[in-house]
C-alpha cells in the first residue's frame, strides 16, 4: 500500500515540485493545501501517513496547523518546510511536535530521506500509542476487578485471594469475563 501524503505550501510551483518528486518515488499525494486551514481539513479527511507543511503560509501558518495535526493525531507524522533556519523556528517546530524540518530550496536528495524517516517515526509512534492505549485499558479493568474484590471481601468475609478465586469461578460459571462480573458487582446488579 502506498504511503499517503498531504503537501501544504502557499507557493503553487513549490507545491507542484514537491508533489512531483513524491509521486516519482511512489508516494500518493492525497491532497494539496495553500494554507494551514486547508491542510488541517485535508488531514482530517485523509488521515495521511505524512503532512509536509510550509511554515510561512497566509491565514494560518504551518506551525499552528502542525500543532493541531499532531495534537489531534490527524497525520502519523509532520515535516516542516521553510526558507528559515533560525533557532526560534526550530524551537517552535519542536513545540509543535513535528518529526522533521527541511530548509528550502528542496531537492529529492534532501526530501526523500526526510520523508522516509518521518514516515517510519510516525509508524513507530502509532504502534506505541496503540500499546499505551492497551495498557491503559488493562489498568482500568484491573481497577474495576480490585474494587469488586473489596466488595466481595466485605460481603462474604473472605481474604483477597479467596475473593479473586470466587470472582474467577463466577466468571467461568456465568461464561462472562472477570471484568464483566466485576462490573455487575460494583453496580449492585449481582444476585448474591
Mean pLDDT: 94
Helix-strand topology string: EHEHEHEHEHHH
CATH top level class name of the largest domain: Alpha Beta
**What is the third-level CATH name, the topology of the largest domain?**
Rossmann fold
Beta-strand residue percentage:
5-15%
Tags for this model:
192 residues; alpha/beta; Arc Repressor Mutant, subunit A; 5 strands; 13% strand; elongated
Structural notes for this entry:
This protein has 192 residues and is of the alpha/beta class. Helices cover 61% and strands 13% of the residues. Helix 2 runs parallel beside helix 3 and helix 5 (108-156) crosses helix 7. The longest helix is centred in the last third of the chain and has 49 residues, at 108-156. The protein is elongated. 29% of the residues are buried. The model has no long low-confidence stretch (mean pLDDT 94).
Fold blueprint:
Elements: E1 4-8, H1 12-24, E2 28-33, H2 36-46, E3 50-54, H3 62-71, E4 78-82, H4 87-96, E5 100-103, H5 108-156, H6 160-174, H7 178-186
Parallel strand pairs: 1-2, 1-3, 3-4, 4-5
Helix pairs in contact: 2-3, 3-4, 5-6, 5-7, 6-7
